[in-house]
Design a protein that fits this description.
136 residues; alpha+beta; Thiol Ester Dehydrase, Chain A; six-stranded antiparallel beta sheet; 3 helices; 6 strands; globular
């Protein structure tokens, strides 16, 4: 039986995009993940704030790590995000994914993204589909 840490380590090894984002894993437990990254200059949009895809991608990785860490391959079925504050270069973003429902075929997760001042910059909701296949 694989631990949440072993599953997520395996995922990160093969996840070039999360590696490019510079994601660090802070905490893992079944159905839960907490990760962090620093926003870089090349992540800015034409308005001088971080592209919305940056916060979305961080939340999506936290979602993936939380819903897959029981070693049951789970795929995004539906996601949504609300942006509450702008994100800037050098901001340190933390995404915390909490499981709201762990069903046999689906899971529901809420991900809160905060900056280094502990201000909420985005809220993400994700529903996953469970395949009953192992990742590791």
């Amino acid at each position: 039986m694989s631990t949440p840490q072993q599953v997520v380590n395996h995922m990160m090894q093969h996840d070039k995009f999360s590696q490019w984002l510079g994601i660090t894993i802070l905490e893992l437990k079944e159905g839960y993940s907490k990760i962090q990254m620093t926003v870089r200059e090349e992540m800015m949009n034409g308005f001088g704030i971080a592209h919305g895809g940056v916060a979305f991608s961080l939340a999506d990785s936290a979602f993936a790590f939380a819903c897959n860490n029981r070693n049951n391959l789970s795929l995004a079925l539906d996601t949504s995000i609300n942006f509450t504050k702008p994100v800037h270069t050098d901001d340190v973003l933390t995404a915390e994914a909490k499981e709201l429902h762990n069903g046999k075929s689906t899971g529901l997760y809420h991900i809160t993204i905060t900056n280094q001042h502990n201000h909420i910059v985005a809220l993400f909701k994700g529903t996953c589909f469970r395949t009953n296949k192992n990742l590791v």
